Amino acid sequence: MLLVTCPVCGAEGDETDFHGGGQAHVTRPATSDPENITDQQQRDYLFIRHNPKGLHFERWRCDRGCGKWFHAARDTATLEFKAFYGITELPPAELIAQAKGPWADYFAQRAQETKKSK
Amino acid sequence: MTGKPFRLPEGGARIDRNTRVTFSFDGRDIHGFTGDTLASAVLASGQKVFGRSFKYHRPRGVVGLGSEEMNALIGVGADSSHEPNLRATQIEIYDGMTAESQNRWPSLSFDIGAVNNKLSRFFPGGFYYKTFKWPRAFWKHVYEPVIRKAAGLGKAATGRDPDTYEHMHVHCDVIVVGGGLAGLLAAEAAALSGARVVLADENPELGGIADLTAGMIDGVRLSDWLKPLIERLSAMPNVHILKRTTVVGHFVHNYLMMNERVADHDPHLMREGAPRQRLWKVRAGHVILATGALERPIAFANNDRPNIMLASAVRGLVERYGVTPGSNGVVFTNNDDAYLTAFVLKKAGINVRVVDSRKVTSGDLVQRAIADGIPVSLGAVISAVEGSLAVKAVKIADYRKGQGRVITEKRVECDFIAMSGGWNPVLHLWAHNGGKIKFDDGLQSFRPDVHRDAMTAVGAANGSMDVATTVDEARSAGEAAAKSVLKKTKALKLAKLEVKEPSRGALESLWFAPATGKYNEGNKHFIDFQNDVTAADLELAQREGYESVEHTKRYTTFGMATDQGKTSNLNGLGVLSEATGKAIPAIGTTTFRPPYTPYSFGSIAGSLTGSLFLPVRRTVVFQWHTDKGATFEPVGQWRRAYTYTGTGEDKHQSITREILSVRNKVGLLDASTLGKIEIKGPDAAEFLDRMYTNAYSTLKVGRCRYGLMMNELGFLTDDGVTVRLADDHFLMHTTSGGADRIAAWLEEWLQTEWTHYKVFVTPVTEQWSQFGLAGPKAREVLAKMDPDFDVSNEAFPHMSFKIGHLGGYPVRLFRISFSGEMSYELATPAGYGLSLWSALLEAGSEFGIEPYGTEALHVLRAEKGYIVIGDETDGTTTPDDVGMSGMVSKKKADFLGKRSLEQSYLKGSGRKQLVGLLTEDPQEVLPDGAYAVAEVKDKPPMEMIGQVTSTYMSPTLGRSIAMALIENGRARMGETISFPLERGKVVKAKITDTVFYDKDGGRINA
Prior knowledge:
Shape of chain B: elongated
Number of helices of chain A: 4
Mean pLDDT of chain B: 93
Oligomer: heterodimer
Largest sheet of chain B: 7 strands, mixed
Largest sheet of chain A: 4 strands, antiparallel
Order of helices and strands of chain A: EEEHHEEEHH
Low-confidence stretches of chain A: none
Number of strands of chain B: 50
Strand content of chain B: 25-35%
């Protein structure tokens, strides 16, 4: 039974007091450009998820507390939560640095986009 | 039975010889003393057989001291209070207790199933897999029923459990599992450091096996030295001691489950209000495992005979209960510890000799035994046991480590055997949640290595079998645990303890003792007593290629019994090691799974049974419905009135009456359960445009619009009418069961995707009572209610909305319809609900108003072809499938599910589409869910083309109607399709439009 802490209201509780919402940082293509979405982009958005052994980023909701969604970084091998952070935020920099595989690619791409927009 | 005095004239620290207790075992009255276990009392009466084994039905007696007992499984309690499979060594007796043995028929001393033992050469490992494969029909009708009857343990009680149970939740800084020397010292150190400590022990008394252990602290015997410590701990406000409490499992992030047997030992407590058992759910900052160690049996020929026990169990019987298994015992060991049993027996005046597999050994205890005149055979093993219901004699053979067969042996009479193959740290809890273990050559057993949770093992559980190390480990672990959890701890000053204990010679592993006769002939070396797995079975599994220990386990069922391999695991690994020539660590271990010992379903359920299982939600009119004879149906957590059956009516008649009342006059429905969500803020309209398939930004204030909601996959999830109360303010209706889900759904998108929207989502379902007033006379009823607004069709048309008053009642009115009749939904603050309900009925009485229930509602809506999400949709249904593609906006750039509808797999032909059905025989009502087939054949398989989603006898039309999802249904209008039912019956029905009644909608707009 995972022990979860809500970063919004601070409530600490069993995972059954919360609601696991699957992988974090999934981009919904239709929000920004609904006219130009390929079938494959839509398929990836709906169905394709990372399944790493190790550091992973997830969405959770404080079901029986404040009702807010938030992000969590969790090691899927040790089940240790590394961080809880806001739903609109990226993970702490030191965790981004530890990310591997598709997560590393994702954060690298996000960093590039941020650079461009500046 | 034999007339021998099994109860010793003195001794027995746990029993009170002044209070006799009488209970019934297999219908026979047994007398014991307060403090006795069922095992000790029955053994004292002279009975040795406690049950029959699982596969071979061999007679079995008590083996263990406590929770490791694998043979003597007993059912306790009569009728519905009966609990099977309890360990005789843990059952505390009380006056009037009824207990019975298990897995024997017709009696313990004669068992028909024992023929399995004679046939045992036909029951090797993997027997079930090899034999019961075919013919297939035999499995269901012959093999399974016979196996189930012959095998298996106790029988579950029938009837509802009359006892009460409860759950407790507790958080603590440190939990100490096990109240022996190690646990008590660790708890003291943690508590004195300032930690809140829970200490749980499965036994009725603290102290573990300190009373059976050699050694002194500060010149006092261990068990006496512990007494003041236990008193001190019990008095500390930050220490909570739970006895008779088994920690059954350890889960992620130090979550533990404990089962406390509150009143099992004294049912009188239940009459005083105590629950029978209590399940504790604990979240601990740090876990200290002081679970001790369990003694290993030795695999020698026929080592399962009654009166062959673990050495510690024999020691416990004598020391704790003043009971001896016999008058002439043999201690069979490979280590020093079992010599303590010899001393205890000798002191009690019982003949004893020691058979020690070690040729050379040097510990204090061995020397003392020899000096005391106890006959000790070094370099020897037991090679045969005579007797089947009781031990009569053994053969003692000369032995050198590794020797495979017997060369010389001598016969020695005896009537019991105390065996010890060494001690295994109890690692179950350590391993439940991923703790790593390592092999220890000195112990010839596994001990804890590392754990990802905050957990420390101390004392014997950590493989530290001596008192001095245990004391040091326990104290420092307790202090460290407190420091790791608390920000500030108190300085710990503990007096140094002076420990004295005998030196120990090394243990020598003994995984298999050679037997008299040719290799293994006629002999069984039991490894797993509870599942009847022998050393030969394990070797056979190796020969047959089940080399991995996990495969061996499943093939032979070794370690898979309810004791989860407590006494068998390591012995099995030892046998496999010798069979394969691999070292034990190279073989690996199997997984320990929770629970440590089984616990009852009653405890798991706690008080959450019957009406407490799930909260029930009732509308404010609930009592009125009840008084009017309504039957109820569950809709989510709600109870909704299903129909109001009057005198002389059955449900069918009352439903018909209610339907016709709405069609011809006027009816009143309690629709308060309908989900109601207010959506407010400058971005509310745009937000709803994203959520619904159709547009809400174009909806005028004061108007209603029916909306469809999809998930991102493009499948329908909810529907309902939403009204625009103001530019920035909407009131959404959801299905009764969907209110919470949809509110959460809206919140999720607001919080995670469109975070910049300024919108509040507020569920208001319970704030409002809402009633449907439907039927051609509805407007007249409304007019009589003294409205402060114009109720004419022109001023208040279909799909419009008003806020006003009906007499004194503040109301929100929606002119919407789910019945096909002219209809209003009236919402009033819930406090006015019952009063408005009654006023409406009174105002409507002259028009023949009648309340109607949910079944009438469903028939009415089906006649009109209105869908119900969850009936006409199944989670893979798109708006187009139900013929509502017109409600999917083409103008809006984006809304949930829009892009998915364009995916190739949702386009093209072959999708099931919603159609109406009219059966050829108008009186024939299709069963709900019936399948339509492309072609009717004599027997399945037949190609299925769809299924019935709603089906009713329509009183309005005087015939049956149905809706169905049928492949390419809309292209098949007028076609007749077939529904094969049970027993060859086939119902034919014509595909039609889904609207059966008032197709042009004249009545709604009247």
